[in-house]
Amino acid sequence: MVKPQTSSIIQSTPLVLDTEELPVIWVQEINLDRTQEFIKELIKLDSDPEVEAIFIYISSYGGDVFAILAMVEAMLNCNKPIHTVGLGLCASGGGILLAAAPGMRYITENSFMHIHHIQTGMNGDLPGIENDVVQTKKIEDKIFSIITKRANISVKELKARLVDNRREWQLSATQAKKFGFVDVIGMPNLKKTLVTEVEW
Questions:
Q1: On the CB side of 161, how many CA atoms lie within 13 Å of its CA?
Q2: Are 101 and 75 in contact (CB under 8 A)?
Q3: Quick one: which of 18, 28, 53, 108 has the fewest CB in 10 Å?
């Protein structure tokens, strides 16, 4: 089966897992290799008794759809509160990760969220391509159900929006909040109680 991607643009910069003092994970490029690092650091922070909450900062064009699903599952199965912060552009898989957080979802005032249909390149014989189409539709429905779970829009309405916008929907921070993909416009206030020394 062809592995679909949620974006045809993959950044060359690596996923950066950074902070010396704050329980923060920074997400740029999304692929299966980087996802392993993401999950590893998420588990480390989730198991640290001194960490009260985890913040995931996202500035990403997206990436591999199965990598994104793995990252979402890891977030949803953490014991600690998981909050996301959108900076600049949260496109495709970056937008999925932003909207899927079980905790608070932030986006800065001048940032954007971008949603589109799953993109894939299919080849092979006709039965194989037909099967890939069926499977890709199932994956897309799963993705859309994830990002609309806490939103003010249904999967059906989301698909209609994509049709109206020629399969691409770019939302401003205000629009992202209006439709319930995020909760707050602005940066989170990291209180001193959340600051802890994390060994990387």
A1: 17
A2: yes
A3: 18
